[in-house]
Design a protein that fits this description.
binds lysine; binds pyridoxal-5'-phosphate; Lyase, Ornithine Decarboxylase, Chain A, domain 1; 8-stranded parallel β-barrel; 2 domains; alpha/beta; globular
């Protein structure tokens, strides 16, 4: 159940009225629910009971260290893609041996740091990366644990920008070539093969592409066994979709059960890298109406959040629900485009939404807990929004709003 619900005519985050949060922390402001994050994570681990598993939350979805800490306390692993994310996980109390490192562009310095702290596994995305990792490990006199991220060439049937498992995508190694790359990995003295990794895309509503991908991965595992290469884990990535509008989001338990059924009696550790399915509906972006601008052909509601705070509508034409925090019972209802103060025509969070609002009203953009704050920027020299977390009946500031001074830090004039 969503942690955001109407009570006495006002939208609440659990038992805390959003108007109170805006009063205390200002707007725009991201609001997350601890209980919801925990519930979504636990759905994975409960469905995996009796099966060796590691659920590695994808840090890119929401990397606030308080969010990471809530999940670390539940024993979560983490999927990272940079040393920045690595340091966040460590600062949040995440265990190094539960970290997997994905991404096509790992630098030598990033590899070195990850080896130093002793991560669980590198998800290697190219042959060149494998060679570099071997050299870095050799210089440190250690063995680097790896999976090869294979690209199974299945259509995830999602937005083309967030599909990753097709031959044309930059991610992973063509599954046909994988046996050869594993053969090479097995011959490298400073590489230790642990698993196979596969992530086919994000926001999947139909789970059949996951099962198709698993089938191909299982065939690969058999080929590897015939080459005397043993695999101890299968990492099936993230990608489970959520409800933004009227999608019927897949149930986590059903998805895991289908995967387990296909896996049968095979003795491997199952790993997942969910991001959105844990964090998206744990958060809203709270924003206030600055001006109403009623033109002849179009009405605009100019709000204090902008594309720099939430870029998904501009980048993917994503539809995200927009709710009035204190819906008006009387007044004029009109259709508006909800636009921010940034100087771009693409600066909108919602288009053609019918709402009864006045200047000063508070709104909440739903499903903003994933790929919201983490994709935000300082464009137009706008400080990034505050982040708060509701925990029971309390609300805590977990990241202060950026000030103009924060924004100029590190910049210097010429002598
Ligand atoms: C390698 C990898 N793992 C995990 C994820 C998390 O995906 P999602 O947020 O859709 O669960 C992504 C993002 O698509 C990814 O690229
Ligand atoms: N940022 C994307 C998802 C990309 C997933 C990362 N590979 C979104 O908001 O939908």
């Amino acid at each position: 159940m969503s942690p955001f619900h109407y009570l006495h005519g006002e939208l609440h985050a659990e038992s805390v009225p959003l108007s109170k949060i805006a009063e205390e922390f200002g707007s725009p402001c991201y609001v997350y629910s601890r209980a919801y994050l925990e519930q979504r994570f636990t759905e994975y681990t409960e469905a995996l009971e009796g099966q060796d598993h590691l659920v590695c939350y994808a840090v890119k979805a929401n990397s606030n260290i308080a969010v990471l800490n809530v999940l670390a306390r539940l024993g979560a692993g983490f999927d990272i893609v940079s040393s920045g994310e690595l340091e966040r996980v460590l600062a949040a109390g995440g265990k190094p041996d539960r970290i997997v490192f994905s991404g096509v562009g790992k630098t030598a310095a990033e590899m070195q740091r990850a080896l130093e702290v002793g991560i669980h596994c590198f998800n290697v995305e190219s042959e060149a990366e494998l060679e570099r990792l071997n050299s870095v490990a050799e210089a440190m006199n250690v063995k680097a644990p790896i999976s090869i991220r294979v690209n199974p060439d299945v259509d995830a049937k999602t937005h083309p920008y967030i599909s990753t498992g097709l031959r044309d995508n930059k991610f992973g190694i063509d599954i046909e070539r994988a046996p050869e790359v594993y053969r090479r990995a097995a011959s490298l003295p400073n590489i230790k093969i642990k698993g196979v990794d596969c992530h086919i895309g994000s926001q999947l509503i139909d789970t059949s592409p996951f099962l198709d991908a698993l089938e191909r991965v299982l065939k690969l595992v058999e080929v590897l066994a015939s080459m005397n290469i043993t695999i101890s884990h299968l990492d099936l990535g993230g990608g489970l979709g959520v409800r933004y509008r009227d999608e019927t989001a897949p149930d986590t338990g059903d998805y895991i059960r289908a995967i387990r059924a296909k896996l049968g009696e095979r003795k491997v550790t199952l790993m997942f890298e969910p991001g959105r399915s844990i964090a998206a509906n744990a958060g809203v972006l709270l924003t206030r109406v600055e001006y109403l601008k009623l033109n002849e052909h179009k009405n605009f509601a100019i709000i204090d959040a902008a594309m720099n705070d939430m870029i998904r509508p501009a980048l993917y034409s994503a539809w995200m629900d927009l709710m009035a925090v204190q819906p008006r019972e009387d007044g004029v209802s009109r259709s508006y485009d909800f636009v921010g103060p940034v100087c771009e025509t693409g600066d909108f969070l919602a288009k053609d939404r019918e709402l009864c609002i006045e200047e000063g009203d508070l709104l909440a953009l739903a499903s903003s807990g994933a790929y919201g704050f983490t994709m935000s920027s300082n464009y137009n020299s706008r400080g990034r929004a505050a982040e708060v977390m509701v925990d029971g009946d309390k609300c805590h500031l977990i990241r202060a709003r950026e000030t103009v001074t924060d924004l100029m830090r590190g910049e210097t004039l010429l002598p």
